[in-house]
Amino acid sequence: MSENQQIIANEYYHDGVVRFLVVCSMLWAVLGMGAGVYVAAELIWPEIDFGQFWLSFGRLRPLHTNAIIFGFGVSALMATAFYSVQRTCHVPLPTLRLAWVTAMLWQICVLSGGLSLLAGMNSGKEYAELEWPFDIAIAIVWISFGVVFFSTIACRRIKPIYISNWFYGGLIIVIAMLHVVNSLVMPATLLKSYPVYAGAQDAIVQWWYGHNAVGFLLTGGFLGMLYYFLPKQADRPIWSYKLSVVAFWSFTYAYIWAGPHHLHYNSIPDWVQNLGMVMSLILLAPSWATMINGIMTVSSASEKLRTDPALKFIVLSLAFYGLATFEGPMMAIKSVNAVSHFTDWTIGHVHSGALGWNALIVFGTFYYLVPRLVDAKLYSVRLANIHFWLALAGTMLYVLSMWGAGVSQGLLWLSLDEFGEPSFSFKDIMASMPPYYMLRLLGGFTFFLGTLLMIFNLVMTMKGRPTVRVRPPKITATGEAQ
Amino acid sequence: MNGTRTNTDTGPLLLRVLFRPKETFEDLSRAEPSPYRIFFKYLVWFALLPPMFAYIGGSRYGWDLGAANPLILAEIQLRIVSMLYFFVLLTAFVSTAFASQWMSETYGARKSLGVHMAMVTILAVPMTVGSVVHLYPHVFINLLVFIPVLIWAMYLLYVGLPVALNIEPEKGMLMASSLVGWLLVGFVTLLGVTVALWTEGLGPSIGA
Amino acid sequence: MSGLSLHKRLENNAGLLVFGILVVSSIGGLVQIIPSLTQESLKTPIGNTQVYGALELVGRDIYVREGCSVCHSQQIRPLLAEVKRYGPYSRAGEFVYDRPFLWGSKRTGPDLHRIGGKYSDTWQKVHLINPRSVVENSIMPGYPWLAVRPASSTGNIQANLRALQRLGDPYTDADILEAPAKLEGLMEVDALVAYLQQLGTGFDNSMADNHGAEH
Prior knowledge:
The complex is a heterotrimer of chains A (482), B (208) and C (215). By secondary structure, chain A is mainly α. Chain A is built from 16 helices and two strands. Chain A has a domain at 14-161. Chain A has a two-stranded antiparallel ribbon. In chain A, a hairpin with a 2-residue loop joins strand 1 and strand 2. Chain B is mainly α and 208 residues long. Chain B has one domain. Chains A and C meet through helix 3, helix 5, helix 6, strand 1 and strand 2 of A and helix 1, helix 2, helix 3, helix 4 and helix 6 of C.
């Protein structure tokens, strides 16, 4: 054997870091969803903060959002990105040490960032609450994430770059751009800074960031997950290559424009609002193109649903993806937005996406991935099926109760009596909300319970078993993979 | 057995769905009902009950949104809203039957419109039965009743669809999920359209 | 199909792919953000809008720290019911010194943009410490710690003002020097109340344009 072939013969994919990130993601799920359940309860019984600043709703809420998005979500994205980029490039991560550093530093950033939120360090901008020292740390770790990912692509042994990598690549590049621009501040002290933007300008920049954090992190990144893991699980190629190309580029182009739909009837120029509305409607097309691609891929592989609980989660996540990406453009229409803005309908919409799409596809992916990481069967298929129904029930309860609450609020806030005065006081309208909030608490708690079942199941699957070593396919003399 | 048992009157079908849903779907799997007969004999009447109960409840008690005293709508507005409710329900059921027929190609299901219409009619039963709560029109209580109704209807869908349309359980699961997606999207559209029209001035005036 | 063969070239070249993503994703932001950064009306204060005084700035920083904008908006929309309930709708020129903007995305509590002067200082203080003592079914959390923490402990007021000055807000060096004195003897709750009491007071109804609310 030549020296080169010998090196290749001893090569394994680096999956230890993948396993680490999966475990971290599950820990964040517990913390983030637990915080979510707690704040949902605080909206019914405000006394359960016991007068403590670190349990106060205003500080716990950003802890919830940050733990879920940056803890649970990004850890899952990093895990699946590292897993899939190696296999789609047929090469182990060339910068393994950097991959571990990225994974571990990220956890430290999110953990210390979360604690800083409880301590009161808050920039005041949604989903970008962490103050400037953390912004810098996050940027550095994100760059190293990019280096690990793109260096793998640069060293690939297959010429074409598979579509899941376009989405993960888009995630890394666009989030970097958004983060840097939106986090531009003038520091006053180590703990406090002020944005370089003010007022209406700050609003436009913030929601360009905020909406595209949803677009490229919560949507784009997870689409990368979908495009790799769905064909693997269904054991079929993606239904339409052409559709995926068109969908990717129109998605990347259109999503960026949609930010101003968070600012309808706010004091920003009308043309910006209208542009945001129109592009949000156009965005429906690439989103649904992807959903159709996914469903058609699965529909030819339906017999796998019998034995594979993971596939069930992915199928359901596609249905909720369709719902959320339909509801979004609809709520971006100004006359609908006049009713929905500032209400619980927005919260319902967020969670139909966060629970129905993001969480569910992570669950499906983890049920597929974890047994393979340790070369074992899933500990309990029955528990996974129970989890499926708990997740579905929890999501439906959450969404329906918030639709009820939100539409009531919106319509009642706008109604005028025969003298042209508001018909109901704000106080009275909100006083009718607790029943909806109870249903939401029940929904969120049910969802959380299902998640705990999954974590138990996956921990029992992994316990005591080392990460299995997988070789990349051998490349023959003609350059073909064997 | 075959179609001869499913054709007397609304009573037995309603009861059979309530107490023997599996049998009802099995009967359907062997039957070839005419879509028109299903529509006029069953679906129209099932769709009529919720708006009727809502009208009675709305005119006797007024709609309680929880914020203040129950809202009494003007008689003409109540009538228009009730009629719209009826037409929306009918449109929803019929369009779902067509959507289901359209999907049957992809999933290898039976294609006749009558079968899909009958399946949708069976799925309408929980809602028809549950709508009796409209007689006491308190929004939250109605929500509380309609959530189990929804769960029940979804259970009927997932269990009954593969049986009625003669496809394997896994394909049935996929097709049922697609229909759920269709229904969710339809509902959200309805929400949006209603709200949009309302803010443009086309809606009942509440708050007196 | 030449489009697809072009794309095959992109797929085989990581650099081109990265460049393509960067270009395509920048366009929307450039179009929507650049004009807003140069538009005068978004940078010009209207009416009586002024920079925040030292005490009010401390109050605003507390508002941000406690996450008040998670439940309260500061943006009255040009919708008739909203104008009737809260007052004249919000104009961009009122927010030119707001860093960060605090328009909010959710109303679990009422909009606060024109809350200034609507309630007495005493009411505001009592409400902040324990909302349920003045509003029966309120689900707002209480902030008892605001009453015992001095306003000077919130942050470094001079460093904060200097940062704002560097960003272009019209603070004089004298303002910065005199700032700590303005906080003496006052608690965080006093600062927050001072901030709340000036909210929306910069706008003078005579500045309202002719067409008023749209709906």
